[in-house]
Amino acid sequence: MDASKEHGTALDRPSTIVATDDAVSTAREAVRNAEQTHGRKHIETQKAKIKLAQCLQAHGDFEEALSLSRTVLSAAQDTFGPRDPKTFSSMHHLTVLLAEQRRTVEYETTARTLIKDCADALGDDHPIVIKATAALGLMLRRRSRLEEAEQLMRDAFEKSERSYGSDDERTLESIDELARTLLLRGKMEDSEPAVEEAELMMEESLDASERLLGADNAETNWRRAELASTRLFMGKTNEAEESMEGALQRYRESLGEHHPDTIWAQAFLATTDVEIEDIVKKSAKALHDGLPRVNVMITSLIDNFADQGRFKEAEMLARAMLENSLRAHGDDHSDTIDQREKLAALHKRMGNLDASSRQRRMALRSRQRVFGHTHTGTIEAVDLFAKVLKDQGEWEAAEAVCWDFFAMYPTPNQPNHFTLALMATHAIILKQMQKYELAEKIMSEVLRHRRTMNGNDHNLTVWAVAWLGALYLEQGAFSQAEPLIRETHKSKKRVLGDEHAGTLIEGRRLVETMSRRTVTKDDVMFVSDLYEKVVRIFGQQHEESILLGQQLAILLNKQGKCDEADALIATVVERRRSVSGDHNLATLWVIVCQLGMLQEHRKYDEAEPIAKGLLAATQKISGEDHLTSIRAQNTLAIVKLHQKALDDAETLARDSLERTLRVYGKGTRETTESASALATALAAQGKFDEAETLLSTSYRMGKRRRGGEDEDTVELMENLVDVLKKAGKRDEAMKWARKLYEACRKTLGDDDRVTLRAREELECLRGEKQPGDEGDITVQQAVHDPMRGFGNGQSNAVQVVKLLDPPARLVTTAAAGEIPNEAKEDSKGECPDLMAIQKLHVDLALSDSKS
C-alpha cells in the first residue's frame, strides 16, 4: 500500500473546535463574575476574557473575538507594562486568533514584533519566543515560503534544545516540524539534500521518542510511520518495509491484532486486494468497538485509498464513519456534520456529483440549525454546496444559493476569509453565466480585501488578480487585463524566483496580452530574454518553448523585423510538427500564424503551397463543408488574389460563400466572413457595385439576426468604406465611415486599434488629415495595400486575422493543456480539459473566441 503521505500530518490532525450558544453564554458569565470578584484589570479577569475570545472564535464571532483580544492586550500593556511576560502572553493569544482567521498580513507583523520584543525583554530562549517562532514558521510553510519557514523551524529547534534539552517532548515536536519542512522543500524544489536531511532529523526524533516515551508509544509509532513514508518516497522501499515490519510485530505483541496502530502498519505493507479487504474489515470493527484513535487512523486510510484510486474501499470506510457518528450522536452533532462533509468531498473526487450534492445539502442544513447562518463553518458549507452545484452544471441553482446568503447577510465592511471565498465562488458562477459586469465587481471587492488581509504576494491574492485579468481578456479588454497579468507575473517572480516554471508560464501569459497592443523594443527584449530561459530550462521541443517562440515571432513581426520573424516561425513550425504531427490542432494553428506573416510580408509565392496544404489538411480532418475548411479556402483565395490570379480567387471565394450559406444560413458570423472574402476578390477586379451590394446586404442581415452591432458587423463596415472609396463614392464612404467610428466606440471602446483606425479614416475623408501624416494613428507595421480588407489590419486575409487574433489565448492554453495554479482548488468548468480538446474538431483552433 502506498503510504507516501506524511503520516504524522495525516494522523495528528487537530479536531475542529466548535462552540454552542450556551458555551458562549457561560464564558460571558465567567467574565462578569471575575470582574465583580477581582476587578477589571486583574490577571484572572484577563484570563477569563481570553477564554471568552477563544469561545467567540470557535462560535464564528470573529470580529468580537479579535476586538476582545486586542482589549485584553491593551489592558495588559497598561497594567503590567509592555515588557512583562503577561503582556507577551496576551499578544501570543492575539496572534493565535489572527492565524486562525487567516489574517496573514497582520498575523505576520504581530508575530515578528512579539518574537523580537519578547526576546529582547525575556531572552532569546523564552517559551513564548519559541512558540511564536515555530508558529510563524508553520504559517510561512503553508504559504510555500519554505526557505524562511525552514530558518524559523531551525531556530525553534535550536532554542528548544537549549531550553528543554534533547529528550523533551517539546524539542521532539520542533524536530518533527523542521523535518516536515525540509521534506516539503525537497519535494517542491527537487532537492535531494533537503530530503536526506529530513530523513536524518526523523531518525533522530524517532530515537529520542523511543528513549523518552517508549517503543510502543503512540507518538513513537507515528514518528516511525512518518520515517517509513519518507524512505518510501526516497525509493528506499526495502528499508521502509523492514522498518514497518518490525513495528508491526511489536504492535501485535503489545497492542493486539485489532488496535488502530496495528491496522495502520498492516495497511502500510498491504499490496494485494485480499490484504486491503482485510484492512477495511478490521478498520470497520475497530470503529464499531470504539477503540482509541480509531477515527484518525481511518481518516488516514481513507486519504491513502483515495490517492491510490481505491474509491470503493475509501467510500466504505467513510460511510462507516458517518453511520457510527449518526448512531452515537445523531444528525446534528458536529462530528456527524464533519463526517458527512468528508464523505461529500470523497464523492466529488470520485466524480459522483449527485451524491456529493446531497451530502453537502444535508451538512449545510445541519450547520444552519446548530451553529446559525453566519458561523464561519456555515459560510464555508454554503460555498462548498454552491461549488458542487456549479460542477454539476446547475448554474442557476448555484447562483441562487449565493444570492440567498448575501440577501440575508450582506457583506460586512471587513469580511472574513470564508466570506471572501464564497464571494469568489459567486463571481466564478456569474462569469460562467456571462454576467461579466457583476462578476467583475464582486471579484474586485474580493481582491481589495485580500490585499488588506493577506498581502499582495499571498497565493489567494495572486489568484484573484490573475482571475480578473483572465476576465478582462475574455471580454477583449486588453488594456485592463495587462496590468493585472503583469502584477501576477511580478508576484510569482518574487515568491517563486525568476526561473521557476510557474513564473515562466505566467510570463508567457503576459506576452500573449502584450501582443494585442503596440509593441515596444523593451517588450521584445523581455520576450527574447524569457524565450531564452524557457528553452534553456524546458528544452527546445517543450510545449512552453514552442508556444513562446510563436509569440516572439509575432512580436518581432509587429516590430517590423520580418526576416527574424519568418525564420523563427519556420523553426517553430518544424518543432511543432516533430512534436505533434502534421494533422494536430496545435500544428495547424502555428501554420496559420506562419501563413499570416508570409502574406503580410507579401511573400505570396511562399504562402501559396502552405495555404493549399492547410486547406487539404482541414478538409481531410473536418470535411469540405466544415467552417474550418471554408476559412482555409477563403485564405487561399486571398493568396491567389495577391498573386493576381483574380479569376481563381473569385471562384474560390464564391464557392466558399455558397457553402457557408447552405450550411450556416444568412446573417451568421460564418456567412459574414465568406461575404467579406468574396467582396475583396470582386473589388480587386473592379466589380465595385457587386461588392458594395454584397457587403451592405450582409451588414443588414447580420445586424438584424444578431440584434445590433458587433465585431463582425464592424468588419463589414470597414470593408464597405474601403470599397466605396475605391469606387469614387466619397460621400457614401464618409457616411459609412462615421457610422463605423460610432459602432467601434460602442463595441470595442475608444482605445481599441480598430477604433483608432476608424477615426483616422474618418478624418482623412473629411480632409482633416492626409493618409500617412506623421501623426497618423495606425496599427503598428500594418501593410498599406490597395487591396487591404478584412478588418484587423494585421494581414490582408480576414481568415488569417481571425485565426491570429481573438483565439490566440484559447488555443495556446488548450494546446498546452494548462490549468492555472491559482485555480487548482476549484478549477472545474473554468479551464479547458486537454483530452477533451484533442477530441474536438480542428475548428476549435480556427474559430474566433466567441464561437
Short key terms for the protein model shown above:
Serine Threonine Protein Phosphatase 5, Tetratricopeptide repeat; disordered N terminus; 0% strand; mainly alpha; disordered C terminus
CATH superfamily of the domain at 622-816 and 825-851: Tetratricopeptide repeat domain
Number of helices, counting only DSSP H or I runs of 4 residues or more: 41
Low-confidence stretches: 1-17, 772-851
Which percent band covers the strand fraction? under 5%
- The appropriate CATH architecture of the domain at 622-816 and 825-851 is Alpha Horseshoe
Fraction of residues in H or I helices: over 70%
Q: What structural category characterises the helix and strand content?
A: mainly alpha
> How many strands, what sense, and barrel or not for the largest sheet?
none
Using only C-alpha atoms, the radius of gyration works out to: 33 Å
CATH structural fold name of the domain at 622-816 and 825-851: Serine Threonine Protein Phosphatase 5, Tetratricopeptide repeat
**How many E-type strands?**
0
Mean residue pLDDT: 81
CATH class of the domain at 622-816 and 825-851: Mainly Alpha
How does the overall form come out from the CA principal axes?
A: elongated
Q: Which quaternary structure do these chains form?
A: single chain
User: Whole-Å distance between the termini?
Assistant: 47 Å
Organism: Clonostachys chloroleuca
Protein name: Kinesin light chain
InterPro entries: NLR-like (IPR053137), TPR-like_helical_dom_sf (IPR011990)
